[in-house]
Design goal:
Chains A, B: Its EC number is 2.7.1.121. Chains A, B: This is phosphoenolpyruvate--glycerone phosphotransferase. Chains A, B: Residues 9-332 form the DhaK domain. Chains A, B: InterPro entries: DhaK_1, DhaK_dom, Dihydroxyacetone_Kinase. Two copies of one chain form a homodimer. By secondary structure, chain A is an alpha/beta fold. The first copy, chain A, folds into two domains: 15-185, Dihydroxyacetone kinase, domain 1 (Rossmann fold); 187-321, Hypothetical Protein Tm841, Chain: A,domain 3. Chain A contains eight helices and twelve strands. Chain A has helices at 13-24, 86-96, 110-125, 155-168, 173-185, 234-248, 268-284, 315-322; strands at residues 29-32, 37-40, 50-57, 74-80, 102-107, 130-135, 187-193, 213-216, 227-230, 255-262, 288-295, 305-312. In chain A, the strands form two sheets. In chain A, strands 1-2-4-3-5-6 form a six-stranded mixed beta sheet, with helices on both faces. In chain A, helix 4 packs antiparallel against helix 5. The termini of chain A are far apart.
Chain lengths: 332, 332
Amino acid sequence: MGMKKLINDPGTVVADALRGIEAAHPGTLKVDHTNRLIVRGDAPRPGKVAVISGGGSGHEPLHGGFVGPGMLDAAVCGEVFTSPTPDQVLAALQAVDSGEGTLMIVKNYTGDVMNFEMAGELAAADGIEVTSVVVADDVAVTDSLYTAGRRGVGGTVVVEKIAGAAAEAGRSLAEVTALAQRTADAARSMGLALTSCTVPAAGRPTFDLADDEIELGIGIHGEPGRSREKLAPVHDLAARLVNPILDDLDFTGAPVIVICNGMGGTPLIELYGLYAEVSDLLAARGVQIARNLVGNYITSLEMAGASITLVKADSELLDYWDAPVSTTGLRW
Amino acid sequence: MGMKKLINDPGTVVADALRGIEAAHPGTLKVDHTNRLIVRGDAPRPGKVAVISGGGSGHEPLHGGFVGPGMLDAAVCGEVFTSPTPDQVLAALQAVDSGEGTLMIVKNYTGDVMNFEMAGELAAADGIEVTSVVVADDVAVTDSLYTAGRRGVGGTVVVEKIAGAAAEAGRSLAEVTALAQRTADAARSMGLALTSCTVPAAGRPTFDLADDEIELGIGIHGEPGRSREKLAPVHDLAARLVNPILDDLDFTGAPVIVICNGMGGTPLIELYGLYAEVSDLLAARGVQIARNLVGNYITSLEMAGASITLVKADSELLDYWDAPVSTTGLRW
């Protein structure tokens, strides 16, 4: 099947989206087209620790949709499913620097980790204090095509929210970094795909699935998962997402934040159906859902599928989760 | 191609989603499973005019995602792409009745118009004062498979927002109804599909499109559009959406609300690319965008595609647009 997308050219997808973001959110967001940055309109914020993230594009609203008061100061946009360069990340670090230091939240993909690290060293040489937290919450696989260690997926959204809130509340760089690390350590995710997605520059689906097959344990780039299985009722699929998470970490005895996330091509009516099953399963296993999100938060272009993220919280993390946030992707 | 969906059974899709909505939003939303209603948690609100809407499911977040303070008091959920029954609508009218009267916002589909009207008459016989506004904003076709007159599409979101805000502000039923009608009269929309969608109970795509074809002027049920055309760059497709709207109503000289809406299966990165083109086109035609939304607001299950809605506003309508709203689908 050919590629059907609302685009001008595979080479201009990210640039065109950035033009749209700039046009849609004047004042609240600034766009640096040269470095492909989405920056909080009022950055740098004097007296506030900055928080940035970024990575390949195609996972929207992550990360650009989480730039704004109470969350990120900037997002660095790579090409679709491709790490941004160290120069881009360095430009972001310079754009948000208030003198209080900057936390970089990095999803655990080899290219991202390397390029953010290099940018952090360059910025440090310029006198900018930089820390980083690597998110590696995907229980599906240990190593993958793109990763040494676990991949960073839905937990990233929670880490960005909590770190952003702590920074907004005036916490120090060391404190914001520790909170982000604590959140990352408490996050576990698992996803599945019903269909592949098509990277514009590739022009064909990343993988093939038969009409009755799903890919279990998929990452966010169409990379191979844990197993290929037969399509089944969502009641059964929910268990195949939730059980590996609960097998990996004890989520009882603490308030838990749950994200029921769509991969981009799955309608909300199905995501709520999945959430009903997940909610029942967690109740049966003695897990107390304190907060939840149901919708598209970290996607793989138009892939049909979903992922479940659980974060074992405590009252401090919940307070930062509940703190006001005003971004295009998350707002309360 | 077979049907790949995260569901238990084609017959339980709406019921399962309602279980998920109830589990995800305790307190803020009440779910009446018998009548398939999503009701504001604190309804009925003494002293406030009520506003309800509804229709076939499969267009999420419309309408259930727009229930809450500043917008709807209740949404009535039909089966997928099927009008709710008069009994369901009557139950909603009874659930939200505060004695101040209720406005029903109805998309212009024959079944919806008939069933809401019948329910309104039944409620009136019970002493509930009911008005209705029919939204018919789609410029693509005059009559369709499902409609006498124009179809109701994206403009519905704006009518619900403005009527809900006016009701929240304490305006009378007559005033809320007049504002809703004024908004509906000022709304124009046009959509296109890159792919069909599959109604669960049907089990196969509603229509077929070749790999290089789009359906221009599509409604929200996969019903036939204005013409079948070749896929083209989004720069050209944007013009084919915007020009028929501007040919139909003069949008210059007033602040305009624009919705760049995804049909469910189109990623946000493409919607922002489309918005960049729409924004340029409107500027070139002398149309002043005062407010915008970019995202999924009224969908057709997993259909890939988009629609553009323009509403010619004024300072009063803009004030109600800007008023606080707290729903799962729209919040500020």
